[in-house]
Protein: ABC transporter substrate-binding protein
Amino acid sequence: MGSPSVFSRAAAWGAACFLLLTGAAHAEEVKVMISGGMAAAYRELTPEFEQKTGHHIETAWGPSMGTTHDAIPIRLERGEKADVLIMVGSALGELVRQGRVVADSRVDLVRSPIGMVVKAGVPKPDISTVEALTRTLLAAKSVVYSDSASGVYVGGELFKRLGIAEQMQGKSRMIPAEPVAAVVARGEAELGFQQISELLPIAGADFVAPLPEEVQKITIFSAGIVNGSQNPAGAKALIDFLASAAAAPALKKSGLEPIHK
Structure:
């Protein structure tokens, strides 16, 4: 009677070892580089992805463009490894052209509008129309905007479209590698412009409104698999999850508009 018990225990141990080993084989690390536009939703969704798939996510944060130390293109240039990039679609497209991202792996995930914040507790100015926005900008003592796609538009195009580029030169500036709302929350600027999804999570700043539709600039955030990825299957699984209907509520809550295929 003792032998069957020994054999049963041995079989159970063998089965347990097999499950551990096969689980480890599938529970691979997925290295992600991501810009701030999807940060709030990403932080909410990745634990669910890890729980469902067994994959472990390792995240590096940085702007989609620019020359700061943490900017995603700069990280790649100095040899940092990644499986997935999640960033402004136009910047991802440039990396596809450079051969750094697998071309047919690109998935457009969300549309992201630009909005404005003021320091918490101060009166919210009117930017509901193009005329009201122009008046508010001219009356402001200081204006800041991001060093990514939204800021390139605000500083390089919006002021010109409003006919106030010259008036804004001395009182507006780009903020590198920091959430614009954090600068406004500290009282270092009166008005701040960035993607709404990057403004909402910052304490100490109050969201005012999106830019008027006539001068709004929608940024597409996209994901792609890095050429030479050590875990392309895990990378694809993450992209598919972020593009799925299951991820949509978290994306919408953070101020983003999911793109449904």
Q: What stands out?
A: The chain has two domains: 27-111+220-258, 114-215. DSSP finds eleven helices and eleven strands in the chain. Residues 2-26 form the longest helix (25 residues). Confidence is low (pLDDT under 50) at residues 1-26.
